[in-house]
User: Fold this.
Amino acid sequence: MTHPPFETKRIRDHVLRVSVGTRLDNSNATAMLELIHRARSEGVRFLILDCQSLQFLSSAGVGSILGAVDGLRQEGGDIILCGLPDQPRRVLEVLDLLEYLAVSPSLAEAEARCAQGSS
Amino acid sequence: MCPDDRALIQLTPGFPEGDARAFFDRLAAVLAESPRQVKVDCSALDRITSRGVGLLWKAYCECASSGTSLLLESPSHGVVRTLSALDLGAFFGLEPAELPTAEYRGGSGAGEYVDAFPATESEVDRALTRFGDYVRGLNMETAMEAELQTLFYEAVTNIRLHGGLTPPQRVEVQFSIGEHDLRLCFKDPGPPFDPTTQKDDYNNAMAAQRGQIRGFGLAMMRRMADEMTYTRESGRLNVLTLLKRRRKAP
Assistant:
């Protein structure tokens, strides 16, 4: 099943906000990974993944995030997950990723973390 | 009023959507006549939502406070299944003997869900939606609901990607609710594959350092299921069973 492309918004030069949509699974995990790599090549260091609408996160969806996070961190950036609902939160919890990944309760806090990290 | 001091109220298809107020108006009018028993005709419903269950329970309480019993008449398998899974069947006069044997096994409160579908991406999506609707109707705790849906998707997606199935071969899924546990059973006619023998070397930091993008599904299944067993049935079917123990209420 094809899902709509992710909506993105450049908040600052180094910060990109991505609306994840309702699902991040085998159908769109590769597209997410490509989006992150492309953003990185364009100078983005911080990605805020807005997960407020995310109803289902699969192992492939986890891979699209985990596969890119270390590269961004080595460049002083990060991926920040924002507004995680129950199912994706539980998936990250069982994989011991809730503390490994940066998680913010709100977009405002996520943006503040990016501002601190890039200053 | 029916004979023998009983009143009958009919539910319309889709209840409670657009029908809840009319239902309770009718119930109030019926209760004003102090019947001994109110029967609610459910023959128009093939299933019931959590909101519908809540409204039926409210009606049951209103009847009880008036000294009137409320019984369901002609409930479908779907309605019986949902109410039984919630241990509410007896309140509405549903006897275990009324449970359809094709869909229920294991005694009071135990239900079973069965589905079979081709291992294509779109069919897996549809099957997950069907299963999600079913599980939501059981009003489980949110974490359990999330884990069951995730286990379903990961197991079936693994079969879709690696099982080499071609139409008309299908994946069969059974979900059963027992007194102490929940069981998800997946059968597929693909080549033998025993996931329980695969090495579990998942490590979050190592995976990130390697830039790992695949191979998390089995780690998730192992951590979400309390037991995972595999058998090869009749030399032609992979049978993977995932068990989750029911948590006792605090």
